[in-house]
């Protein structure tokens, strides 16, 4: 069920799948929207979970007040406000790419509210693959309408990827992406390792075996050691919820079952 929820300085657009079980929050990364989870969320709902799938603020259909920075620390705060608005006291956070920075920050700020944390092709400390988005951060805003087609060629023009980037077509969409890219700040998670380990939240790390942006050995494995989790490799590249949704959903269902 699509909806929108007003939080401080922002309005969050979301889809909600109303399973009767515990709550699961699915967070996308850059340059995605909640459509990243379109093939995964229904499978988790069918397994009995209440699944919340928002657009991060400043992405897709979620909007912030003018001048508000849409970095991942702010996203973590907004997501907790969203949980409060929905009456959710504890939640399992499942996050992809830089959305996992928001998920990790949610965990260290309120570990008692996080039932579990699953990271898919995510970030570790200040390893955010910023080189991959530098051209977007420095993109000429007067040429913003050209950004989405360039990204589509760079990331692959599959049906899933085209749907994912649809929200960023045209000048307004391109400017939205530039703003989101400029707000990304790896220093927000650079020093949270000790707090993340101390949270002792059950965790899972899922990674595409062909991830071209965030390497397994330098990002996935150190993150997994920090979280006390194994690395589960999946038959995909970076955008695993698009590349192999059945395998992602199966691994997540298995993880969620251990948290009951």
Write structural notes for this entry:
With 260 residues, the chain is an alpha/beta fold. It has one domain: Rossmann fold (3-Layer(aba) Sandwich), CATH 3.40.50. It has 12 helices and 9 strands. Strands 1, 2, 3, 4, 5, 6, 7, 8 and 9 form a 9-stranded mixed β-sheet that branches. The chain is globular. The model has no long low-confidence stretch (mean pLDDT 96).
Helix and strand arrangement:
Blueprint: E1 2-7, E2 10-18, E3 23-27, H1 41-46, E4 50-54, E5 63-64, H2 72-85, E6 91-97, H3 99-109, E7 114-122, H4 134-137, H5 147-155, H6 159-165, H7 170-183, H8 187-190, H9 193-199, E8 203-208, H10 216-227, E9 231-234, H11 240-243, H12 245-258
Parallel strand pairs: 3-4, 3-6, 6-7, 7-8, 8-9
Antiparallel strand pairs: 1-2, 2-4, 2-5
Any key phrases for this structure?
nine-stranded mixed beta sheet; 20% strand; alpha/beta; 260 residues; Rossmann fold; 12 helices; single chain
Can you write the helix and strand succession as a string? EEEHEEHEHEHHHHHHEHEHH
CATH topology group? Rossmann fold
Total count of helical runs of at least 4 residues:
12
Shape: globular
Radius of gyration equals 17 Å
Mean pLDDT: 96
CATH architecture: 3-Layer(aba) Sandwich
**What is the CATH C-level name?**
Alpha Beta
In whole angstroms, the N-to-C terminal distance is 25 Å
């Amino acid at each position: 069920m699509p909806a929108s929820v007003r939080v401080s300085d922002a309005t969050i657009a979301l889809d909600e799948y109303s399973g009767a079980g515990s709550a699961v929050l699915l967070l996308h990364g850059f340059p995605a929207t909640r459509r990243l989870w379109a093939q995964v969320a229904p499978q988790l709902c069918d397994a009995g979970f209440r699944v919340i799938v928002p657009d991060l603020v400043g992405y897709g259909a979620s909007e912030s007040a003018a001048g508000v920075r849409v970095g991942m620390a702010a996203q973590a705060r907004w997501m907790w406000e969203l949980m409060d608005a929905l009456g959710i006291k504890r939640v399992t956070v499942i996050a992809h790419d830089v959305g996992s920075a928001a998920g990790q920050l949610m965990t260290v700020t309120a570990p008692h509210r996080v039932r579990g944390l699953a990271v898919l092709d995510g970030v570790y400390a200040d390893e955010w693959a910023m080189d991959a988005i530098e051209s977007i951060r420095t993109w000429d805003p007067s040429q913003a309408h050209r950004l989405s087609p360039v990204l589509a060629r760079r990331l692959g023009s599959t049906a899933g990827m085209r749907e994912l980037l649809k929200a960023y077509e045209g000048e307004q969409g391109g400017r939205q992406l530039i703003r989101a890219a400029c707000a990304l700040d790896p220093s927000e998670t650079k020093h949270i390792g000790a707090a993340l380990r101390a949270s002792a939240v059950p965790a899972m790390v899922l990674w595409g075996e062909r991830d071209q942006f965030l390497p397994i050995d330098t990002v996935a494995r150190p993150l997994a050691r920090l979280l006390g989790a194994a690395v589960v490799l999946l038959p995909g590249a970076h955008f695993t919820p698009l590349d192999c949704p059945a395998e992602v959903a199966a691994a997540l269902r298995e993880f969620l079952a251990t948290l009951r």
